[in-house]
Amino acid sequence: MKVRTSTRVGSTFLAYGSTAIFLIPVYILVNLSIRPDGDLTPGFLPSGKATLDHYVTAWTSSSLPGAIVTSIIVTVISTAVVLALATMAAYPLARSMSRLSNATFYGFLVGLLLPFQLALLPVYFQMRDLHLLGTIWSLVIVYVGLQMPFSIFLITTFLRSSVPIEYEEASRIDGCSNVRTFWHMVVPLLRPVLGTCAILNGVGIWNDFFTPLIFLTGGSQVTIPMAIYQFVGQYTSNWPLIFASLVISMIPILAVYLLLQRYVIQGFAGGLKG
């Protein structure tokens, strides 16, 4: 009993200690964002003259509000399309044991190894020919293609390791078609891994700067990273406004994560079993 108690206390102490270490950058970020101009207090010390003026300025004197709307639209549409397509692609890959199925699965995994920059120029010219440059639809198409390999990998391995095929066989015995079995039996069981994919894909899309910089140039719409970059100059940067904008940009994605957090670890762990 003493060994178990000491182990539990050590694990708890390690967990809280690790959490504190990871929260230090967040604390410094918030602390720097509420400082008045000219305050030279070290970043880890709280300021005696905290102010929210930088948040007001970042919200009213920049394109940040519109950028948040654009980022939400791009993230939601891209993530939803990725989840729908990846789920429909992963199901036959998980249930079929043929050589073609395995070859197709490993073909998708090649997409995890190849950097996006290899296809950047052809994709850019294709979007230009389709007159999609400067629109959010170019981003949606690119993000769907980029996020599909990882999502298919995670959902396929989760299906193989955590969703018994006996459930589907029982539903077919009861008279359900393959389509009805998939939507009413399989998809509800995929909620943990779908929540994991939604968080991982959403965070990656939300924070991405390079892709919007390439495909939204020349358009009127910008995403959050592009809006924050407007505070960066060649010779000087408005760091208090950058810090305040970063804190504002964290709020929506953090709220979504808190809503789906119970699915994240469960789905990720189940997906890695395969």
TrEMBL record:
This is Carbohydrate ABC transporter permease. It is a multi-pass membrane protein. InterPro entries: MetI-like (IPR000515), MetI-like_sf (IPR035906). The keyword Cytoplasm does not apply. Signal peptide: none annotated. The keyword Cell membrane applies. Belongs to the binding-protein-dependent transport system permease family. The lineage of its organism: Bacteria, Bacillati, Actinomycetota, Actinomycetes, Micrococcales.
